[in-house]
Amino acid sequence: MATERSGGGDPVRTLALLWRRPAEPKPVGRKPKVSVDQIVVAAIAVADREGLGAMSMARVAQELSVGTMSLYTHVPGKGELIDLMTDAVLQERDLTPAGTWRERIKHYADRTRAVYQAHPWMRDVSMVRPPLGPGLMDGQEFVLAALADSGLEPKQVTVAHVAVEGFVHGAASSEVDDRQLEETTGESSDSWWGARQVFWEDYFDVERYPTMTNLWNANAYHTETTIADNMRSGFDYGLEKLLDGIEGGMR
Amino acid sequence: MATERSGGGDPVRTLALLWRRPAEPKPVGRKPKVSVDQIVVAAIAVADREGLGAMSMARVAQELSVGTMSLYTHVPGKGELIDLMTDAVLQERDLTPAGTWRERIKHYADRTRAVYQAHPWMRDVSMVRPPLGPGLMDGQEFVLAALADSGLEPKQVTVAHVAVEGFVHGAASSEVDDRQLEETTGESSDSWWGARQVFWEDYFDVERYPTMTNLWNANAYHTETTIADNMRSGFDYGLEKLLDGIEGGMR
DNA sequence: TATTGTTTCCGTATGGCCTACGGAAATGGG
DNA sequence: CCCATTTCCGTAGGCCATACGGAAACAATA
After folding, report:
1. 3-state helix, strand, coil in chain B (%, to 5)
2. What does the domain layout of chain A look like in residue ranges?
3. CATH code for residues A95-248
4. For residue A212, which residues of chain B lie inside 8 Å, CB to CB?
């Protein structure tokens, strides 16, 4: 399945839901069996356990012992529900502003990474038209504040923000992608690569790929670490170097 | 829809397809109406025009005027077909090794970005268990060769490789995500943000978001550029700073 | 030409998805 | 008790991937 798109519906309705601005309470009429909060929590639970692909309206309704169509009374549709789920988990970051600007950005990266680890389906959510809720906005403010404190010019802050945000979400996505594949396919990454041993035997061409061959012979790939560890250190290194570059560019 | 997973089938069969190692020609039996190449080309055409979500086996078969199940004679399943599509478009990069190591990495980034622009559905393909075909391998060799020429130690080359590859694919994905949303939803990004004007009026809290307020007042967001241009310059800036950092880290 | 072995083609069937529609059921006030 | 209001939810339509197995096409042989 391709990436889930959200944020397509009526902005006024969706924003009111994201910020939980309640419609004035209804004095009459049938009592609701479920609330928006319950639906969001149940949907997150299903997606955490079985992936976003399994998070169908029917499945969430089942989780709540309610008919499928009842959900549509409280939530406009599936896209908006994903918006609500996304902002809810972003709020879990609970960012604490302390330390140098670099430390705060690393804190942001760590907390964001933790969200992705806890909710791997975040990998499948597009963030180019994000839910404009408190979870997203608080994160943006946090990163912008750190970058502003670094001494960058205002215009540079906004440019650097795009770069940092892109790197963090991209890195978190890739890491989680790996972990999620292990769960959904039931095959570990190491096993997957092992099953493709035949590639190196039958298809790898030493003449065509001299650099890879050299690196192999230099033992650059002979580590005790797992695939996941390699990705993690690659991204840690990348963020460090990106911040080095940003810092160095100011002089 | 969530991200498409591929590479799940029999590795031997999939590798033979990726490298077009033909089974020995069949002298007898019914003549095939379609070839693997035709199927891949048709699938890419459908995905280019209508997105990966619309690229169903039935839709591809229709494109070729063939029954749906006929495809399964030539391709094990949908996952493997996506592998073949992916490697095919990666081959379009046609990388030319010239210039300094930095210039070559930027060349790689540009060519990869061009592939994503031409085939926006690449955003929806997971690259953590990539198709081990010529398109992918040539790209890896190219980046590794550039990094090795930069003077990094072998072990550092492999770490930096993860960071660069992650950044480039992440950046290309985000850019294309934006473009693809414009096509599939029929609403431009500028229009989408415009429709959320109400957010700034009804929900934005100046006290809660002082940095954003300051940046706004400093005219940091008052540019003539589009969303897409902003993303592009953010990622160009980020790659530049990342390479600065890698270069600086060697001294 | 008729037969046989081999390969490809493809119709059917299963179980899932989202959500428009509209009637049934519950609730509080008069 | 009645009725306006609100929520609940069954049905129905049109998509998806692919297992299975028989029909059809083709080359070599008799």
Report:
1. 65, 0, 30
2. 11-88, 95-248
3. 1.10.357.10
4. 140-141, 144
